[in-house]
Design brief:
The chain is of the alpha/beta class and 393 residues long. The protein is built from 13 helices and 15 strands. The protein folds into two domains: 185 residues, Rossmann fold, CATH 3.40.50.1440; 119 residues, Tubulin/FtsZ, C-terminal domain (60s Ribosomal Protein L30, Chain: A), CATH 3.30.1330.20.
Length: 393
């Protein structure tokens, strides 16, 4: 395996689960789910119990296959990240050993730590999870944080097994700032996923799975290269692959003054109309794809609300399309138009182009900012300050 994907808390584990919805990701990466509540772990579909690590104030770390796991990992941390932080701070060494056991031989070249920052477990343990990854894998392993920001447009009401719990937007904002402050000190870059993007949609609670899959698909595009498609680019004489890899992603997440904060955008368009599906052997129904439209759509669907693309410091993007759209003349996507769109936002742009056998063209991009240029973080800081004394350490 080349990569390690660790989910911390409910939202983080759910995102890792979505990434592994595609079976072939398991040929590239090892998944681990770290959580304090058995109920959330049992909701995972693609990360099996052998890859679970429970965390508990009373029991410490509990392997997923240990007898009595259900009773030992059930309490959670009461949505208090400081309690989770205190518990996890004493478990970095055991976590490192658990990651080594999960990963098997060798160490990952890159690792992702996924965490939701509005609650207690993920927000509190994520920095220590990142520290444990580094202790296990060494300083040469780059660690990317994937931070899920809470929807703070209003108070939320969650239904649990016993009753309803109302959580204030201010409390969630305070937790998020606390989590970001600590996470940025131990990772090489942060990808932001903002649940507030769903705030004004009808039945928003039902859209979280869709949003997770949207983000997961983008991450798969960026990390997989040609592997998931099982296509040999060498079989296409006119195709000169322009590849990006995870080292390029890490580089794109760096900024001069510290940890970079990135927003992801992804667009997908069909390359074949209905007649082309009905009689594919005649080559009917192929549709042109405008590079600028593809890029513009991806930027408009970025994963962070209240963001100004023109403040980005760096951008990276991956186009994935059928062979006629990356070679030949008739339908080739003009990559220069994609580059021009990104160049209009920031001075440093890196683009890749890969093949797919699907009749779809996709473009996945990251725009990276300095923290002070992300208005959404400033909004969270303001809400946290109004909520009460800062919990930042």
């Amino acid at each position: 395996m080349a990569y390690l994907f660790v989910g911390a808390g409910q939202a983080g584990c759910a995102l890792v689960d979505s990434v592994f919805e595609v079976d072939r990701v398991s040929t590239l990466a090892t998944p681990v789910a770290v959580n304090s509540t058995i109920r959330d772990l049992q909701n995972l579909s693609n990360v099996g119990q052998e890859s679970w690590i429970g965390i508990s104030q009373r029991e410490g770390l509990v392997p997923g296959d240990e007898a009595g796991f259900e009773e030992k990992v059930s309490g959670g941390f009461g949505r208090d990240p400081k309690v989770a932080d205190e518990t996890a701070s004493d478990l970095v060494g055991p976590l490192a050993s658990a990651f080594a056991e999960q990963f098997g031989e060798g160490t990952p070249s890159f690792a992702f730590v996924f965490a939701g920052l509005g609650g207690g477990t993920g927000c509190g343990i994520a920095p220590h999870v990142a520290e444990a990854v580094t202790e296990f894998a060494g300083e040469t392993t780059d660690v990317i944080g994937v931070a899920v920001l809470p929807n703070t447009s209003g108070d939320i009401t969650r239904q649990n097994a016993d009753d309803e719990e109302t959580v204030s937007a201010g409390r969630q904002a305070s937790n998020a700032v606390y989590g970001l402050d600590r996470l940025e000190a131990v990772v090489d870059g942060i990808l932001l996923v903002d649940n507030q993007r769903l705030a004004y949609e009808e039945a928003a609670e039902g859209r979280f799975d869709d949003f997770n899959e949207y983000v997961a698909a983008g991450i798969r595009d960026l990390v997989s290269g040609p592997v998931l498609e099982r296509i040999d680019p060498g079989t296409y004489e006119d195709f000169q692959p322009q590849t990006i890899d995870l080292q390029d992603v890490v580089t794109s997440l760096s900024v001069p003054d510290g940890t970079g904060y990135a927003a992801m955008g992804r667009s997908v368009v069909q390359t074949k109309s209905l007649p082309g599906y009905l009689v594919p052997f005649l080559g009917l129904g192929r549709q042109s794809v405008d590079g600028d439209t593809l890029a513009q759509l991806a930027i408009s669907k970025r994963s962070v609300a209240d963001l100004s693309p023109g403040l980005a410091k760096r951008a990276i993007g991956q186009i994935r399309a059928p062979a006629p759209y990356v070679s030949g003349d008739d339908y080739r996507i003009e990559i220069s138009l994609v580059r021009s769109r990104l160049d209009s936002y920031c001075p440093e742009v890196n683009l890749g182009m890969m093949l797919t056998e699907r009749n779809l063209a996709s473009f996945t991009t990251l725009l990276t900012f300095e923290r002070e240029d992300v208005d959404r973080i400033e909004q969270l800081e303001s809400q946290a300050a109004r909520y009460g004394p800062s919990t930042t350490v």
